[in-house]
Design brief:
Blueprint: H1 8-12, H2 22-30, H3 36-42, H4 44-65, H5 68-82, H6 85-102, H7 113-117, H8 121-137, H9 141-159, H10 167-179, H11 189-198, H12 207-229, H13 231-240, H14 251-271, H15 275-293, H16 301-313, H17 320-324
Helix pairs in contact: 2-13, 6-8, 6-16, 8-9, 9-10, 10-12, 12-13, 12-14, 13-14, 14-15, 15-16
């Protein structure tokens, strides 16, 4: 059923380098990879300065977030926001699948359905739209999520580790499979009873941990893939859009800084540290990128919606910040 990928260019042009044309991609793939170690050595003072600024900012946000009076003040309305988070996550997954079907590419523009499914591309696009609609409206969401998980496994078999770029889809699908949909208009009651017997009630405390960890993994791998493994492509974007006019740094140092920030964002989601602040920062960071580069919005629906869901939900009991708290009655604000 799966066809061959048209070329390595399609895969290499994911994420930031959506904005490059084919000739620019080919040229960048032939160019030597940026030497980040040498860049750090050449700009060690800048590296230490900006590293120190980030550390200070992180510490200020952290200590502000665990301020007891502020926690007690914000806790009541923050807890009210939590109930909306699973609904946002479910709708986000559904909307992203509908967009994939509509634009005839699965998860991202570099994965066109015709290259993967050949003559079955059109019926598969309809299948994606149906699965997405089921999730958006709560029509047998668990069955729809099983279908999404199966599709993801098939893509892993075909593309291998590259699918870590889209691990967020798997995290949200697995969460719905194991713990049910946040809103369910129709459900398979036999399946519900089966999962209720297999998965004890106290396991529900893990559901946002699964989504959060795979979201973090996705962000970390996407950054490494676009800026380290194919760093010359990211460097081409910096040159093409004259980013050094806005950020007066050496181009390689600029790519390195963006990569480290994105990895740090992923790590914070992965371990559960400053989740709300990280969600807000990520949304601003992503919005600026979409506006400046004029990228397609639909492949980023899953990122935008998941970040919003993370902000609304905040912390679970297995997050790093909550583990540090002595008073468990309130969670960190940011």
């Amino acid at each position: 059923m799966f066809g061959l990928v048209s070329s390595s260019v399609g895969i290499a042009s994911a994420h930031e380098v959506y904005v490059l044309d084919t000739s620019e991609i080919h040229s960048a793939l032939q160019a030597p990879q940026p030497d980040f170690i040498q860049s750090i050595h050449d700009h060690l003072n800048q590296f230490m300065l900006w590293g120190s600024i980030v550390i200070v900012l992180v510490l200020v946000i952290f200590f502000l977030s665990i301020n007891r009076p502020l926690e007690r003040l914000c806790d009541p309305w923050l807890r009210k926001l939590k109930k909306y988070s699973p609904h946002i996550a479910q709708i986000t997954l559904g909307a992203a699948l509908v967009a994939s079907g509509y634009y005839h590419a699965i998860f991202g523009v570099e994965l066109p359905l015709t290259d993967i499914f050949g003559v079955f591309a059109v019926p598969f696009s309809y299948a994606l739209i149906i699965l997405g609609s089921m999730l958006v409206f709560g029509l047998f969401p668990r069955i729809a999520a099983v279908g999404v998980s199966g599709i993801f496994v098939g893509l892993v078999w075909h593309f291998g580790v590259y699918m870590l770029n889209y691990a967020t889809y798997l995290g949200e699908a697995i969460t719905i499979v194991l713990f049910g949909g946040a809103h369910t208009l129709f459900a398979n009651h036999r399946l519900v009873r089966l999962f209720s017997r297999v998965i004890p009630e106290h396991f529900h405390a893990y559901k946002f941990m699964i989504m959060r960890i795979l979201f973090g993994v996705s962000l970390i791998y996407a950054s490494l893939y676009a800026k380290l493994i194919h760093g010359a492509l990211a460097l081409e974007v910096v040159t093409k859009y004259h980013l050094t006019h806005y950020f007066p740094f050496d181009p390689i140092f600029l790519v390195l800084g963006a990569m480290l920030i994105e990895i740090l964002i992923g790590i914070f989601f992965l371990v559960g540290f400053e989740i709300r602040f990280t969600s807000l920062f990520f949304l601003v960071f992503l919005s600026m990128s979409l506006i400046f580069f004029g990228e397609s919005v639909w492949p980023h629906i899953i990122l935008i919606g998941t970040a919003i869901a993370m902000f609304l939900h905040g912390y679970d009991r297995y997050t790093f910040s909550v583990r540090l708290e002595k008073d468990k009655r309130a969670e960190p604000v940011l």
